[in-house]
Write a structure and sequence with these properties.
There is one protein chain. By secondary structure, this protein is an alpha/beta fold. It folds into 2 domains: 115 residues, 3-Layer(aba) Sandwich (Rossmann fold), CATH 3.40.50.720; 182 residues, Rossmann fold (3-Layer(aba) Sandwich). 36% of the residues lie in helices and 15% in strands. Helix 1 packs parallel to helix 13.
Length: 320
């Protein structure tokens, strides 16, 4: 008898075809976001699941889903999964590292350029039919070339972002909880500085750290207050790392020039203040959303699930 698995959100048909020979597959192809109770109901008789950041896997669910042995996230992040609870219940948890680094870094640069050059404001201006003449001082923005780029988190994605900066001949500063190896610093042409110094010196601050209890609001009012009035803040990492209320206030008062955001606290709900501001570029958590990359993410999660429920040794195991 085949083991039963659940695919919690819509995926590519090729992914379901890959799973079909191995499992009895139930898939949420209508892409409904399930409530906690609905998720428990559907996973109660399942051996494994492919999940996304919208599905919370915690002690309450695991207590009520005793057959569950593998939870495979279609994401690099896994703050929706209580790893300690999974380990206590003998449930393998996996993620999808490595396949989205370049795509996410590309999108961080899209946010940097759009925010620095006020592209969202200019585009709305043209669409509204307001452009009636050329002006010397129209939509004055921030030069990206030769600027100081401050990277919070020089992990895989942060390193790709840093290497992209070479084409703009930028000074690259970074802060992380641990200083990177000399060969990584050399490859990225990045200089380690204390966190406070980075916020004071950088023209552009871009965030590339995971969300956790330790990183919650690690960029808040004190850090933003250190930034130049001409500087911009970019977040394509995780909501909750930035104190959104503090950022709204800084943008509203002109304490910093702008922000580019792909992630938010409590998403898909966002702080209503962002919608009232023109100096912020907003996108709906799509940094990894190229067709090629999202396919790779889903397939890697499926490969993890097959390995977990066959050999017990998935390649991207988070809680060995």
């Amino acid at each position: 008898m085949k083991k039963k698995v659940f695919v919690a959100r819509e995926v590519f048909q090729e992914v379901l075809d890959f799973l079909a020979p191995h499992f009895e597959v139930q898939a949420n192809q209508e892409d409904k976001v399930l409530t906690a109770e609905e998720l428990v109901g559907v996973l109660a008789d399942k051996d494994g699941a492919m999940t996304t950041l919208t599905e919370r896997i915690d002690e309450n669910l695991l207590n009520r889903c005793p057959r569950l042995k593998a939870v495979c996230n279609i994401a690099v992040g896994y703050n929706n999964i209580d790893l300690a609870a999974c380990s206590a219940h003998g449930v393998m948890a996996t993620n999808t590292p490595g396949v989205l680094d370049d795509t996410t870094a590309d999108f961080a640069w899209a946010l940097i350029l759009a925010t620095a050059r006020r592209l969202n404001e200019a585009e709305a201006y043209v669409r509204a039919g307001q452009w009636d003449k050329w002006k010397l001082k129209q939509f004055l923005g921030l030069d990206v070339h030769h600027a100081a780029l401050g990277i919070i988190g020089l992990g895989r994605i942060g390193q790709v972002v840093a290497r992209r900066a070479m084409g703009f001949e930028m000074e690259v500063l970074y802060y992380d909880v641990r200083q990177a190896a000399p060969e990584i610093e050399s490859a990225c042409r990045a200089t380690y500085v204390p966190k406070e110094e980075l916020f004071r010196k950088a023209d552009i601050v871009t965030i590339h750290i995971p969300y956790s209890r330790e990183t919650h609001h690690s960029i808040g009012a004190p850090e933003i207050a250190l930034m130049k009035k001409s500087a911009i803040l970019i977040n394509a990492a995780r909501g909750g790392v930035v104190d959104d209320a503090a950022l709204v206030e800084a943008l509203r008062t002109g304490a910093i020039a702008g922000a580019g955001l792909d992630v938010f606290e409590g998403e898909p709900a966002i702080h209503p203040g962002f919608r009232e501001l023109r100096n912020v570029v907003l996108s709906p958590h799509i940094a990894s959303s190229s067709e090629k990359t999202r396919f790779k993410m889903a397939m890697k999660a499926a490969e993890n699930l097959v390995a977990a429920l066959s050999s017990g040794n998935p390649p991207n195991l988070l809680n060995p």
